[in-house]
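Severity: low
Component: inverse-folding endpoint
Summary: output formatting inconsistent between runs
Steps to reproduce: submit the following structure tokens with default settings.
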């Protein structure tokens, strides 16, 4: 199961990276109407890679859940899977970021959380079916 969780985390990172880059580009295009996007796109891509990397590290405690004593305790399992990404989202709601980047940070956190939730649902559905 550890291998499956690790693979799911990598898939979450990659899918979240693509979706959050697209969402951030759309957000930038709506907010900065008529400005030159050629300089913004490399910055958006590198920033999203960095933010998704942070979220991946914050979701890494999910790798401890294959332990039977943790897996059988639903509250502890949910905490290890989702506390990091939720803390990221809540922190960005509470503390303003310089330059008005809160919306980008929150979009990134929510995208990562939703994708992580989908992979968690598939994992638990698969394990309950066995």
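Observed output (run 2 of 3):
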């Amino acid at each position: 199961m550890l291998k499956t969780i690790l693979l799911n985390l990598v898939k979450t990172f990659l899918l979240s990276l693509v979706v959050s880059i697209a969402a951030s580009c759309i957000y930038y295009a709506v907010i900065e109407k008529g400005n030159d996007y050629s300089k913004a796109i490399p910055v958006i891509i590198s920033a999203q890679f960095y933010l998704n990397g942070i979220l991946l590290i914050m979701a890494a405690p999910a790798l401890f859940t294959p332990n039977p004593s943790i897996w059988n305790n639903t509250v502890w399992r949910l905490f290890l899977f989702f506390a990091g990404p939720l803390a990221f989202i809540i922190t960005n709601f509470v503390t303003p970021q310089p330059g008005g980047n809160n919306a980008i940070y929150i979009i990134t956190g929510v995208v990562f959380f939703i994708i992580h939730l989908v992979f968690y649902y598939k994992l638990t559905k698969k394990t309950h079916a066995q």
